[in-house]
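Supplementary Methods, section 5.1.

A reviewer requested that the exact input to the structure prediction be made available. We therefore reproduce it here, unchanged from the version used in the analyses.
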Amino acid sequence: MIKKLLLACFFIAFFTGTAYAQSAPAQPRTSYVTATVTSVIKQGTKIVNGSSNYFQDIKVRIDSGPEKGKVIEVENGLQNKITKSELYTKGQEIVLSKTVNSKGQTEYSPYDFYRINFLIIFVVIFFILIFAVAGFKGLGSIAGMLVSLAIIMLYIVPTILKGHNPLSTTIIGSAFIIILSTYLAHGVSKKSTIALFSTLISIVLAGVFANLAMHFGNITGLGNEDYVNLQIGPTSDINIQGLFLSAIIIGTLGALNDITTTQSATLEEFKETNPKLKAEELFDKGLKVGREHIASLINTLVLAYVGSAFAVLIFFVLNPLHVPYWVILNNEIIADEVVKIIAGSIGLLLSVPIVTFLGSLFYGKVED
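The structure derived from this sequence is encoded token-by-token as follows.
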């Protein structure tokens, strides 16, 4: 919470400071450098505002920037309350914030652990495992994933920031994501095309149900703290309700694509095994398999959303202020998560009969 508020304040200062550059006094300039902890001089706990707080004095060597190689002493836990897991050890790489005030004085303070090298290695391991398990199909999957991220970061997000409607922007971007990622991962085939159209239909239906729920449930989208922060500064004009619906669509997209592709492949396999199957028989067999798949996927989707809102559940169970539970359940923080789960699950539920119906028409031999 504190970090997010500080981040919001940073954005306010950054984006509004330029508008008053001529009249406002010079603001401190902050930059960031990497460093390595060379030794821990002192470490322990102290009482700050009535509570125990960890602190440590450490010596670090700056590894980037104009002062590379310089060794300095800094205090960790001086400005912010830190936990035991945020204490540094000798040899660890960290990030320092470098602040130059209006008098030209420079102050360094620990900002975070340095994780970029680890993240690169972790991603490489992930890619290697994909290729080892899925072979060349895995390469198509990786390409599809990269294309999806590129569309989100280079089209959807910038277009929303330019003031365009978040929902329509996300629908257009999602259509391209589905088309490109499906064909890259599975190739251009009848199976992929059936899955593609089924996913597009299902995602639209999920969006419709989410929109109806938002309207009749008086959902503003502001139950999420991150969305509240977007109401400050240059992002204040973004349609938060549209952004809320966009998040549901993107969050459901992957699971929908998974179930439609799997279901389409299952129908194709049924047809190859028994070419004499009629459309009606193929639909019945496919629906039986689809029901099993949907049972596990809905649970997966629910757990994914619950995991993302786990901190909310902690407060719900703890209930330190002893607020009546019906009041807590009525709160938009809870309502937002319920709408996300239900709307996404509805899209998954409907995708099974949709893809099974389309697949049975394409693969099945319809009776005269």
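Residues 1-25 have pLDDT under 50 and may be disordered. These observations are discussed further in the main text.
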